[in-house]
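Final report, Chapter 2: Outcomes

The project's central promise was a pipeline that accepts a single protein chain and returns its three-dimensional structure in a standardized token representation, suitable for archiving and comparison. That pipeline is now operational. To close this chapter, we reproduce one record exactly as it appears in the project archive, with the input sequence first and the structure output second.
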Amino acid sequence: MREHIFLAGVLSALAATTAAAFAGDSPTLAKIGQSGTISLGHMETSVPFSYYDQNQEVIGYSREIQLRIVEAVKAKLGLNSLVVRNVPITSQNRIPLIQNGTVDIECSSTTHNLERAKQVAFSNSIFLIQTRLLTATDSGLTDFEDLKGKTVVTMAGTTSERLLRAMNQDRQMGMSVISAKDQGESFQTLETGRAIAYMSDDAVLAGQKARARAPDKWQIVGKPQSIEVYGCLMRRDDPEFKKIADDVIAKLETSAEIDDLYKKWFETPVPPRGLNLGFPMSTALRALYKSPNDTASDDLNKAGR
């Protein structure tokens, strides 16, 4: 028995030493190699990017990309196996959890902007959307100007929240802005009549509409207020780890596999209720796939003006 314990310890030490050798100058790879564990940040209700299915398993478009990065990390470290630790995150704690090392990489529906890029690193972009409104078909609301004096909900710590509050102040619209903790709570606020509209990214709104009890009751309206690109979050000053993520994403997006992945999550029925988002690929997203990059949303919006 002692011999087996000793041998297991030796093998474990050898594996850690080998992984450390492959880690190079990357603190993230060194951490993962020494522990044999990679910590993945995920959203709980961001359909169809990162959310729970009926078995409380994390699934989604972004999750699949994240797991491809895990495989690349495992190969880079020369490991036969790697323990995956799932860490649920919110829009408010995702950056601190990356910074303090609780999460190694987060892939869900996080917008890459210049303010956040001062605190964390972003991978090549994995999606491109526009910010709009979800409202009841009989609400009479067609655009943002119709929100004057009304109550609108959005998710705390997001670009949509910042845009709404700036709009409210600059145009003196007299809106009441509710900041919910996540996408699920945001839609619940809308569904129960506590807000007339819910502002978020159009693809996220399509996901919430699809999972509603009566999807036909809801519509996405309003002139887009911004273009947003999503990226995976990592710690700053670790270019070697970022390159692994960037290479995985670039290889996927420039291959035929990206069409299958997109159709799976945006144009065919998705768990847990088997509803189809019916969200066709935009021309702008197709252009992103052809030329993978890590350009921030701020720069995209400046270029579009």
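Archive annotation: The chain has twelve helices and 14 strands.
This record, like all others produced under the grant, will remain available to the consortium after the project formally closes.
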